[in-house]
Amino acid sequence: MRDPYTILGVSKTASVSDIKKAYRKLAKQYHPDQNKDAKAAAKFAEINSAYEIVGDEKKRGQFDRGEIDAEGKPRFQGFENQAAGGPGGFAQDGGYEFNFGGGRGGFAGGGFDDILSEMFGARANRRGGRESAPRGSDLQATAHVPFSVWALGGKIRVELAPGRVVDAFIPAGIAPGKNVRLKGQGEPGPFGGEPGDALLTVAVDPHEQFRADGKNIRVDVNVTIYEAALGAKVRVPTLDGSVDLTLPAGTTGLRSFRLKGKGVQVREGAGDLIVQPRIIMPDKIPADLEAALLKLRDEGYDPGR
């Protein structure tokens, strides 16, 4: 790494307050939340490393005396007879030890995590250190959700990128166009930072039978003319199987039937399945049926049009 004074743009005789002021200015300029340039993250990490040296009174002194390098690593000083336990001295057991003092974050005038927290809030505090590198980018993808999965809720497989497939849970009834966030499934963070998220835009595939109506679902059911006229039990498809529906005699296409709780299974309360009969005439009307219909017409039957 380059000379930390040069990185921060201060002289070796700069005061503690001047060093802190220079660091604040540069950190604000190159922080990844403020600067989207591809090289900003590397510059930001370099600034943090420089301040870790010259922003700490003990480490600054050790660097100025040549005891540590610009990365905080000890420089070999030889085996001069210095006081035991001092920088580069002999330990009491005869072994050689380096005692540089001052842990990370023990900077004069406050650590750089504190400074970043002042400027950018708690999020920057979590990410401000050299180990806490910038967060990765979010990924965008479209989730094509089968109608039944959308209505009932469940898991689907989504391709985030070529060769990269994940399982995603789709909550029942989520509005099309809304996003489902998959934490940590985005791009990896540079310098070992936390990964971004995957944002899935929901697109609901149409169904051949069912239609959404808010949290209700509508379905058309074919009914013969005699079933409608005389009454009958007919099979009705639902999202989780078929059920029998009893049609009363005289059922018309103007009347619908409601199956409670068979609609979209939203958390606030399931919707209903609305069944709409579709009365189907035979291709060829038998003579006796034709005669009955003609008689009905001649008697002046009025449907109320």
Oligomer: single chain
Q: How much helix is in the residues?
A: 25-40%
Coarse morphology:
rod-shaped
Assigned CATH class of the largest domain: Mainly Alpha
List the helices and strands and how they pair.
Elements: H1 4-8, H2 16-30, H3 40-54, H4 57-64, H5 112-120, H6 122-127, E1 139-145, H7 147-152, E2 154-161, E3 164-170, E4 179-182, E5 198-204, E6 210-213, E7 216-224, H8 225-230, E8 232-238, E9 241-247, E10 257-259, E11 273-280, H9 287-298
Helix pairs in contact: 2-3, 2-5
Domain J: 3-67
Organism: Labrys monachus
Pfam family, one: DnaJ
Description:
The chain is an alpha+beta fold and 305 residues long. The chain folds into three domains: 4-127, DnaJ domain (Helix Hairpins, Orthogonal Bundle); 139-204, Urease metallochaperone UreE, N-terminal domain (HSP40/DNAj peptide-binding domain), CATH 2.60.260.20; 210-298, Urease metallochaperone UreE, N-terminal domain (HSP40/DNAj peptide-binding domain, Sandwich), CATH 2.60.260.20. It has nine helices and eleven strands. It has helices at residues 4-8, 16-30, 40-54, 57-64, 112-120, 122-127, 147-152, 225-230, 287-298; strands spanning 139-145, 154-161, 164-170, 179-182, 198-204, 210-213, 216-224, 232-238, 241-247, 257-259, 273-280. The protein has a four-stranded mixed beta sheet. Strand 2 and strand 3 form a beta hairpin. Helix 2 crosses helix 5 (112-120). The termini are far apart.
